[in-house]
Amino acid sequence: MNTTELEAAAFRRLVQHLNTRTDVQNIDLMILADFCRNCLADWYRDAAMVQGIELSKDAAREKIYGMPFSEWKAKYQREATPEQLSAYAERQKKHD
């Protein structure tokens, strides 16, 4: 295996792991790791564009979420708590 194949395998495992942890909200990921599933979808789409592959935002998100984003959101996304919103706001201040 070459480096690209190993990186691709690690990426697939990360996506699979996130798909089994639907209890982990995107805001939690943003607070703790400064990225979320939407970021992964954006990065995936950016990589496609570099290769000359046109990929919509929705198609990229479906690749990461394993289903249309609207479906995932309806099934798994909860309203952010005041504590989460506060922690996220504090995290954002560090980037300013």
From TrEMBL:
Start and end residues of each SMc04008-like domain: 24-89
Please name one Pfam family that this protein belongs to.
DUF1244
Q: Which residues form a coiled coil?
A: none
List the InterPro entries: SMc04008-like_domain, SMc04008-like_sf
Q: What is this protein called?
A: DUF1244 domain-containing protein
